[in-house]
Write a structure and sequence with these properties.
The complex is a heterodimer of chains A (113) and B (112).
Chain A: E1 4-7, E2 10-13, E3 19-25, E4 31-37, E5 43-51, E6 54-57, E7 64-66, E8 76-78, E9 87-94, E10 103-104, E11 108-112
Parallel strand pairs in A: 2-11
Antiparallel strand pairs in A: 1-3, 3-8, 4-5, 4-9, 5-6, 7-8, 9-10, 9-11
Chain B: E1 4-6, E2 9-13, E3 18-23, E4 30-36, E5 43-49, E6 54-56, E7 60-65, E8 70-75, E9 84-91, E10 100-102, E11 106-111
Parallel strand pairs in B: 2-11
Antiparallel strand pairs in B: 1-3, 3-8, 4-5, 4-9, 5-6, 7-8, 9-10, 9-11
The chains are: A mainly beta (113), B mainly beta (112).
Chain lengths: 113, 112
């Protein structure tokens, strides 16, 4: 079955460590996105990519980095520069087009202690 | 830049109706609606396009006012399963990019 997979579901890290969240899709979608979700703030866009080897910053990119070496994969690294990294992170993918819906992964809950 | 949704939260009894609004400061090509259960992935409900075309859920309706850059989601005869957080999603309007951003969310709880 086609879908989008995020791993791990829960992640704990010590403050000051970088951590990479995985996102893989087998829907053959060109576009992929990373969002951060905090209580009461909705989904905020971190990074997005429309094509391999190209990506753009979203509204809250500071302290994060991404890569898009393969169409199916769009990993997100939360660096030590991110001041408040504890959050629920969602990855999504879609075809290119204004009438195309996004498909979401199940999310990764990151807790930094 | 993030679309603003209203109300922030609403509580209903089964069978009651609700309206959720989404307002953007930028011109929109399309508005998409999603529902998210706690701790789960958002699920697509419907898309509204400029010109009035709609695609999506049979039991949920919505409107899209292109001039006002607003959309409203209408939930009629609500069921317990309608509980969750609703988000509107909008596509960016910059030529050549498809930045996809979501609204602030509306928490809906339906009581028996």
């Amino acid at each position: 079955d086609g879908g989008i997979t995020q791993s791990p579901k829960y992640l704990f890290r010590k403050e000051g460590q970088n951590v990479t969240l995985s996102c893989e899709q087998n829907l053959n979608h060109d576009a992929m996105y990373w969002y951060r979700q905090d209580p009461g703030q909705g989904l905020r866009l971190i990074y997005y990519s429309q094509i391999v080897n190209d990506f753009q910053k979203g509204d809250i990119a500071e302290g994060y980095s991404v890569s898009r070496e393969k169409k199916e994969s769009f990993p997100l690294t939360v660096t030590s520069a991110q001041k408040n990294p504890t959050a629920f992170y969602l990855c999504a993918s879609s075809q290119i087009g204004v009438d195309t819906e996004a498909f979401f992964g199940q999310g990764t809950r990151l807790t930094v202690v | 830049q993030q679309p603003v949704q209203s109300p922030q939260a609403v509580i209903l009894r089964e069978g009651e109706d609700a309206v959720i609004n989404c307002s953007s400061s930028k011109a929109l090509y399309s508005v998409h609606w999603y529902r998210q259960k706690h701790g789960e992935a958002p699920v697509f409900l419907m898309i509204l396009l400029k010109g009035g075309e709609q695609k999506g859920h049979e039991k949920i309706s919505a409107s899209f006012n292109e001039k006002k850059q607003q959309s409203s989601l209408y939930l009629t005869a609500s069921q317990l399963s309608y509980s969750g957080t609703y988000f509107c999603g909008v596509r960016g309007t910059t030529s050549g990019t498809y930045k996809y951003i979501f609204g602030t969310g509306t928490r809906l709880k339906v009581l028996a």
